[in-house]
Amino acid sequence: MGTQAPSALLELRLHAIRYEGEGIHSFDFRDRGGAPLPAFTAGAHVDVHLPNGMARQYSLCNPQDERHRYVVGVKRDDAGRGGSRLLHEKVHVGDVLRVSEPRNHFGLVEGAPHSVLLAGGIGITPMVCMARRLAALGRPFELHHAVRRRSEAAFAQALAGIDRRLHVDEEHGGRPLALAPLLAQAPAGTHFYCCGPAPMLDAFEDAAAGLPAQQVHVERFSAAHEADHSGGFVVRLARSGASVEVRPGQTILEALRTCGVDVPASCEQGICGSCETRVLDGTPEHRDSLLSDEEKASNSVMMVCCSGSRGPQLVLDL
Ligand code: FES
Question: pTM score, two decimals?
Answer without folding.
Answer: 0.85
